[in-house]
Amino acid sequence: MTTAIVAEDESLLREELVSLLRGAWPELDIAAVCEDGGSALEAISEHRPDVAFLDIRMPGLGGLEVAAAAAEASPATHIVFVTAYNQYAVDAFERGAVDYLLKPVTAKRLAAAVERLKARGKVPDPASVAAIIEQLRATLPAVPGTPALTWITASVGKETRLIAVDDVAYFQADNKYTVVMTAEGEALIRKPVRELLAVLDPATFKQIHRSTIVNMKAIAALTKDDSGRGTIRLKNRPETLPVSLTFMPIFRNM
């Protein structure tokens, strides 16, 4: 049976894509439906699906980053990008290593993509996929929108403090709260990790575990053990942070 995962952060578009897929490809087993890039990468690592439908723009890890990491986590997975940027993407997609769906996705376009996927069969060529990802990185326009978060209000005991985001070494989920760790100590906020991913600068803050986001500027070193997992040593904190195997490909160039 052919398996797939779907990753789209907008709930209505996500539900519509899943519904269209069930109609166009009834025998397809949708192993996971994800709301963000980190969850999508974990799902790809866990299920090793035949196909991954990835929204290019998602909180935290975007579709391009997920696809690049998936090339190591699940090399046999075919990538289908979901995008609104037809004029920027067509040249790259026509190389044939990946497919794409334009938003809003139509039944006709999806049916054509499904037929191509069924006919393709062979394992994607990693070099071709990597080249397409780099071309898309260079050509896709920046998305105008809310500026990245620069300050947060956090609780330290009975005090409420204003903390510059640049001073944060990492964020870590803790039950109903998120721990904000700086060189001076920890504070608490109620915003969950997933919501933080949507407002932090993705070039500076990277998810390294289901429950942890690290400030790349706070990293002193990254080591890798024999199993492929990583450990981050921080510049101004004594503790180390584990990097799950799923997220290690993000750090391949460090």
What does this 3D model show about the protein?
There is one protein chain. This protein has 254 residues and is α/β, with parallel strands linked by helices. It folds into 2 domains: 3-139, Rossmann fold; 151-251, OB fold (Dihydrolipoamide Acetyltransferase, E2P) (Beta Barrel), CATH 2.40.50.1020. It has helices at residues 11-24, 37-47, 63-73, 86-93, 107-120, 126-139, 193-199; strands spanning 3-7, 29-34, 51-55, 78-83, 99-102, 151-156, 159-164, 168-174, 177-182, 185-189, 205-209, 212-215, 219-224, 230-234, 240-243. The strands form 4 sheets. A 5-stranded parallel sheet has the order 2-1-3-4-5, sandwiched between helices. A hairpin with a 2-residue loop joins strand 9 (177-182) and strand 10. Helix 1 (11-24) crosses helix 5 (107-120) and helix 4 runs antiparallel to helix 6. The two termini are 38 Å apart. The model has no long low-confidence stretch (mean pLDDT 88).
Strand line-up of the largest beta sheet = 2-1-3-4-5
Helix content: 25-40%
Quick one: how many beta strands? 15
- How much of the sequence lies in strands comes to 25-35%
Oligomerization category of the chains in this entry: single chain
Spans of at least 5 consecutive residues whose pLDDT stays below 50 are: none
Number of helices: 7
Counted up, domains total 2
Summarize the helix and strand pattern as letters: EHEHEHEHEHHEEEEEHEEEEE
Q: Write down the overall mean pLDDT.
A: 88
